[in-house]
Amino acid sequence: xxxxxxxxxxxxxxxxxxxxxxxxxxxxxxxxxxxxxxxxxxxxxxxxxxxxxxxxxxxxxxxxxxxxxxxxxxxxxxxxxxxxxxxxxxxxxxxxxxxxxxxxxxxxxxxxxxxxxxxxxxxx
Length: 124
Known about the structure:
Elements: E1 3-7, E2 10-13, E3 18-25, E4 34-39, E5 46-51, E6 58-60, E7 68-73, E8 78-83, E9 92-99, E10 111-114, E11 118-123
Parallel strand pairs: 2-11
Antiparallel strand pairs: 1-3, 3-8, 4-5, 4-9, 5-6, 7-8, 9-10, 9-11
């Protein structure tokens, strides 16, 4: 059984930073691409960032490019999302997800497993 557990969310002022973590268990973490998605109230879940199985290739939504950094530590089975220069529009529940393949994608249906989410609130 795959488990993904996010942590690191919270309340931060605009311009601040947060680092999200996602601890994975249940199958070989290093074999699969990983991604972060977010969902704001009343909106659909949207892609934020993704990383290939070994980590050299990353992919970002235009709205976070240059501000967010996705990374992974395969030895620790952990995925990270460093978020800098946060804006009120970044407020959402953030989810980590594990792909069905080593290569990343930006669509939710390309991901087989999901965490429970962690709330990020950015005040103006």
